[in-house]
Every structure is written in structure tokens, then in C-alpha cells.
């Protein structure tokens, strides 16, 4: 995996590291700028990127064909987590509404049977 | 009310992997749901019950993920703090509360979204985010299945 050269302009602590918006190097730059000291290899970063990219929904993956840049990946992950939170809220609202309407024992058996079938 | 359901889920915490399968999470969630139902049949507003269901969902998700994950521990801690317990156990592990110097707005946003993300290292944050997304997606699929079958049952009657 080739690493694009990092250009460092000032002293170490106030340096501005710039990199091409390729995926691994950009993530490495973000990692360094976040102030953490542990050495991290490129393979680890690639692994993390591919893992995250694999978890995003298929539509999002089709929209960004091929390798996403790190910032795009982080943005997609944030928006995906937000949408999942919204879905949990919405589904729990619907469940609360449904549970008020049904009160006997047989619907529960139906639900359990439906779950075990899927 | 809610403390009882949480103790149920907490007592069956085994090693993380065997518990993390869809039927196990489903059973746990259904048990928590039935406890939520039994406590307040008609006297509660739907929004109160929706909040209880939401907390039950997050608690089951975190309990199934196991204590190995930082996000599940942070989530359980956040849920347990609500009932207002008086006793404080001495903590063996000192949690690092130093706020991370957030220069990157995306990283800050991710830390805010993932539970327990304020004190983690960056690559740890990415790993936890990946696991959190996986569990959240599974929980959403599970709840969608429950809602579908429940509404299907209702439409039959």
C-alpha cells in the first residue's frame, strides 16, 4: 500500500499535515491530528475503513462506487447512525401504539411464532 | 417498573458471542416488552410507554453485546443511572474523563453519537462505531419484524 507523502509546514505541534484525499493517508492524518500517540499501521487503517464501509447500507455503497475517502466515510457513518436512532424511536412509538390496542394472550403467541419463523 | 426488566437482562450476561444472535436478542427484548406491559396496562400515556420501550430496546442491545464492548458498558451505565440509585460502588477502574481535543468536526460528531465515545482513542472509536452500527442495525431489523407481525395480527382480527 503506497503512502502518499505528508507535507509538514511548521514545527511539530503546530504543523499542518496535508495529504491527498486518498482513504488511508487521510485517515492517518486525522488520527495524528487528533493527538493520539500510538503507532498505527496502514493495514490497520485499511481494515477499519473496509469494515466500516461494509457495514453501511447497500444503497450508500452503490452511490459511492469503489473506495470512499475517509471524510465521506465518517460522514456516511454519522448520518447512518442518526437515521438508525430515528428508526428506533419511530418503531418504539409504533410498538407502544400497537400494544395499547392488543391486550389478550393470543397475539403474543402470534408474534413469537412470527419471530421464530424469520 | 423498569428496574425489574433490567435485572432480568443483566443476570443472563454470559460471554459476549453466544448471546449475540438474533433469537437470543429477540427473546430478551420480548421479555422486557412483556414486563413493560405488565407494569402499566391502561394508566400510562403512549409516549411514556414509548420511552420505556426505547430504553428496553437499548438495554437489550447493550446486554446482548456483552461487557467487552465500551459502548455497551457506557449505554448500560447511562440507563442504570436514571432510576436514581443512592448507593455508589467504588469503581475499580478509573475512567478517563479528560475531554479529547476535538479538532475534526466529523470526529466530534461521531464521538457524540457513539455511547461512551468521549474518552476513547481514535482507532478504538472507529472499532466501537463499527460494532455499534452492526448491533443497532440488527436491533432495528428485529423491532421491524415485531411491529410487522403485530400489525399483521391486528389486521386479521
TrEMBL record, chain A:
Coiled-coil portions: none
Gene3D superfamilies: Helix-loop-helix DNA-binding domain (4.10.280.10)
Leader sequence segment: none
Lineage top rank: taxon: Eukaryota
UniProt domain BHLH: residue ranges: 29-84
Family under the similarity heading: Belongs to the bHLH protein family.
Official protein name in the record: BHLH domain-containing protein
UniProtKB/TrEMBL annotation, chain B:
InterPro entries for the chain: IBH1-like (IPR044660), IBH1_N (IPR059002)
PANTHER family, A to Z: TRANSCRIPTION FACTOR IBH1 (PTHR33124:SF40), TRANSCRIPTION FACTOR IBH1-LIKE 1 (PTHR33124)
Keywords, ordered alphabetically: Transcription, Transcription regulation
Protein name: IBH1-like N-terminal domain-containing protein
Limits of the IBH1-like N-terminal domain: 29-82
Superkingdom assignment: Eukaryota
GO biological process, one term: regulation of DNA-templated transcription
Organism whose genome encodes this protein: Zingiber officinale (Ginger)
Cell inner membrane as UniProt keyword: no
Keyword tRNA processing attached: no
Amino acid at each position: 500500500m503506497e503512502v502518499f507523502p505528508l507535507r509538514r509546514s511548521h514545527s511539530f505541534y503546530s504543523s499542518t499535515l496535508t495529504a491527498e484525499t486518498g482513504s488511508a493517508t487521510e485517515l492517518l492524518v486525522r488520527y495524528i491530528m487528533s493527538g493520539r500517540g500510538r503507532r498505527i499501521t496502514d493495514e490497520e487503517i485499511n481494515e477499519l475503513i473496509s469494515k466500516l464501509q461494509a457495514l453501511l447500507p447497500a444503497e450508500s455503497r452503490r452511490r459511492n462506487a469503489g473506495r470512499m475517502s475517509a471524510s465521506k466515510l465518517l460522514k456516511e457513518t454519522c448520518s447512518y447512525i442518526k437515521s438508525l436512532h430515528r428508526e428506533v424511536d419511530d418503531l418504539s412509538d409504533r410498538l407502544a401504539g400497537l400494544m395499547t390496542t392488543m391486550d389478550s394472550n393470543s397475539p403474543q403467541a402470534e408474534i413469537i411464532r412470527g419471530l421464530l419463523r424469520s | 417498573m423498569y428496574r425489574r426488566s433490567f435485572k432480568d437482562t443483566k443476570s443472563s450476561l454470559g460471554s459476549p458471542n453466544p448471546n449475540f444472535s438474533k433469537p437470543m436478542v429477540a427473546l430478551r427484548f420480548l421479555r422486557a416488552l412483556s414486563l413493560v406491559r405488565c407494569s402499566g396496562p391502561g394508566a400510562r400515556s403512549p409516549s411514556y410507554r414509548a420511552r420505556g420501550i426505547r430504553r428496553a430496546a437499548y438495554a437489550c442491545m447493550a446486554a446482548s453485546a456483552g461487557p467487552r464492548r465500551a459502548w455497551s458498558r457506557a449505554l448500560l451505565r447511562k440507563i442504570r443511572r436514571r432510576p436514581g440509585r443512592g448507593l455508589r460502588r467504588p469503581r475499580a477502574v478509573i475512567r478517563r474523563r479528560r475531554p479529547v481535543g476535538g479538532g475534526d468536526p466529523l470526529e466530534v460528531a461521531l464521538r457524540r453519537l457513539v455511547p461512551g465515545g468521549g474518552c476513547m482513542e481514535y482507532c478504538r472509536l472507529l472499532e466501537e462505531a463499527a460494532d455499534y452500527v452492526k448491533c443497532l442495525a440488527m436491533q432495528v431489523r428485529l423491532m421491524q419484524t415485531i411491529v410487522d407481525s403485530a400489525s399483521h395480527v391486528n389486521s386479521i382480527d
